[in-house]
Each structure stands twice: as structure tokens, then as C-alpha cells.
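Hello Y.,

Per our agreement to keep a running log of every chain we model this quarter, I'm adding this entry. I've kept the format consistent with earlier entries: sequence first, then predicted structure.
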Amino acid sequence: MMMSAASGRRGLTWAIIGGIVLVVGVVAIIVASTISRSPGQAEPTHTSTADSSSPTQTADTVVDPTASAHGWIPEPVTTHADTYIRTALEAASTFDTRKSTRGQWLNYLDSWFTPDTRYQEPDRADRMKAAQLELRQGVVLPREDWDSLAGENGRVVAVSAGEITDVPVSGDTSGHMRIGTTTVTLTFTRSDASGTETSYDERARVSVQVLCGDGSLPTPDTPQTAGDCKVVRYFTEPMEP
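Predicted structure for the entry above:
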């Protein structure tokens, strides 16, 4: 009986000692791992793909993000001539009489213009005003047609289609000007007295002259910078090669 009790006590003692050794070993591993990390090194963290991707695109890709709320097409901030030509031609025929007046729309289109750098400085402002007047008098929807459309809560959406054909710009030595022509489909929508809407399409060949490069003046207080594409002139007739 005495030998059996002593044997039991020795077994218990060794179990306790073994547990202490195990705890000491775990502590030693943790300490070694901490020491091996260089001073000031942060714990590794997981970064999602979204966190490390390219910068988030913002509304800075257009000059005025609020233009759509007025029924207009926002002017793009770009140096890509084809993109700008298509958008400029669509903008000259896209409006919503329920959301803005004709005067507000035309004033908005004025902000797309830049002076023609082929002329000397004293003449540039006058040339730009003449181009803006030409837009009002011979390019956009006439006032009487606007008023008729407004009486029926009308709006027009223009979409360009097909290739853009180019015409050389006489007197341009910079190589930064282009006259682009393409086909635009205009969708007119009207409402009758009962509120029933009807739509129909019209197609037109239209042209615009743009400057994408040195000399273009950005719209103040916008994301545009010098050299971004701007309108020089809209034409009353298509400029075919």
C-alpha cells in the first residue's frame, strides 16, 4: 500500500512538471516571434483589392456635373477629339423644355467655346462672339419651334452614329484643330393634352470645329485645363470632304 501511494505521488509530480515545461515552451515561442520582428514593424494587415486599385473616378470627367439635371449633355473633359466632337454635336440638339429655357440652354452652350487661335488676339473675342451668334441663328432649333415644343412638354435627345469625317482647317498651322462631321439622330418627344407621349426621329448631318491642344481656354473654376478640347465653331451646313 505504501509503495502504491508513493508511486502515485511521483506520477502526479511528473505531470505537473510536464505541464510547466509545456507552458514555458509556448511562452518562449511567442517571445522569439516578437523579438524577430524588427522595431516599429506593424502587424501585417489584409488590404482589399478595392483599397489598392486605381483612383476612384469622379465627376471631374465632365465640366459641369449638374448639366444633366437641366436636360443638357455635360461637356466632357478630354483631349480626345473624336469623343469631344460627338458629344459637342449631340449637345447642340439635346434639351428638355420642362427643365430649362432656351436662353439658359444657349448660355450653357456658350461655355463650350474657345477663341479661334488662327486670328490675332484683338480679333479673337469678336470671332468667338460671331460663332456663338451663328449657333443661335442658324444651327440650333429656332425659337418658334422651341416654343411649340415647350407647349407640349417636349424634349429632344440627339445621338451621333457612324464614322466622323474630317475636313482640313484652313490656316491652322498647329495641327490641333479639326472639323468633324457625322450623322446625328434626334428623337423628339411630345405630350398631348391627356399626357400621352409620342416620339419621332429626325436625322441630320452636322459639323463642328474643335481645338484640342495649345491655345484652348478652359471654362473657369472647372476641372478643365488649358489644352483640353473646346468648340471653335458650329456650322449651319455639313462640311463634307
